Amino acid sequence: MTDWEVIGLFALAAAVIGVVGSYMVALTDRLADRTGLGETIAGGLLLGMSTSLAGVVTSVSAASEGLASLAVANAIGGIPAQTSFLVIADLLNRRVNLEHAAADANNLLQAATLIVLLSLPLSIYMLPPVTVLGVHPVSIVLIGVYIFATRAAIGLKAKPMWRPERTSDTRTDEPDRASQIEALAPLLGKFLAMAVILAVSGYAVAATGAELSARYGISQTLVGALLTAVATSIPELVTTLAAVRRGALQLAVGGIIGGNTFDILFLSLSDIGYRSGSIYHAIGDRDVLLVIGAILMTAVLLMGLIMRERRGVGFEGGTILVIYAAILAAQIFMT
């Protein structure tokens, strides 16, 4: 294939991801009402997982080909990009700060969980490599923490122990009656079909991203953080903006934070796919910087969710963009 054909295939796969992702919001909103999960949990679980499928395929494919940095950078690099999408959504939702209006205990729980999940591989990077059947034990721990947090989120929805202060700008999740009686099987069928399309498109993004890295001699981390991570994050941007336009603000915030949390599992799956030892010890300083940046951005977002500034993008919005710009600049200029 010529260079332009590779670039064209990459752009086409990214476009498919964006189009399909835009249809996922309405389906997820209806599934949230039909299943009783609510927008926040449905956003974190259903929307977050489905829009992350392209990223899963990208990271696992790269890891199976021995491209450890590309796999990790794609997994972690999507988190800063997707977090910054909330700031874009805030700019579009001018009436009130998104973190204020979408206040929900589960968003706080998921943000705290994300910080824990990001800290684990960072800690392991500093320790001697250990593997069991070629897989580092922390990969299993990451999955266990995710399952625990998911169960805790469902329990918190059923019996909340904390509630946000209600204001005139707080948006509550009001289930649609028509969706509550809608047939579940057709909804799930459509949802799964779109998820498969996202996964196939993700594989195309992985293949073309790796090819561009090899042809132009670009750092795997740079390709992962700036190219494949952003391309496979297009569904999150599309679905977040679509959710805000629908007024489903809790779905928008929950989808981003939940998707970011699910993205950490890319590392577990990539470690399984990487057959040359622990993937956490096959990365470099660029990859570690991405993890640190993701932790910082998530911590700032958590502060914004707690403080709940009422107007504009809030201090968290500006700070998140500054951190993201610093991460990108460092990746470009690091030797």
Throw out a few tags for this protein:
14 helices; 335 residues; A middle domain of Talin 1; globular; mainly alpha
Structure description:
It is built from 14 helices and no strands. The chain has one domain (about 5-165, about 185-335): NCX, central ion-binding region (A middle domain of Talin 1). About 80% of the residues lie in helices and about 0% in strands. The mean pLDDT is about 80. It is mostly helical and about 325 residues long. Helix 5 (about 105-125) packs antiparallel against helix 13 (about 285-305). The radius of gyration is 19 Å and the shape is globular.
Q: How much helical structure, as a percent, in the residues?
A: over 70%
Unreliable stretches covering 5 or more consecutive residues: none
Which band does the percent of strand residues land in? under 5%
Write out the CATH superfamily name: NCX, central ion-binding region
User: So how many helices?
Assistant: 14
Mean pLDDT: 80
Structural domain count: 1
The Rg value, from CA coordinates, equals 19 Å
User: How does the helix and strand content classify structurally?
Assistant: mainly alpha
Q: Gap between N and C termini, in Å?
A: 30 Å
Task: Give the overall form.
Answer: globular
CATH topology: A middle domain of Talin 1
Level-1 CATH class name: Mainly Alpha
Largest sheet: none
- Per CATH, which architecture? Up-down Bundle
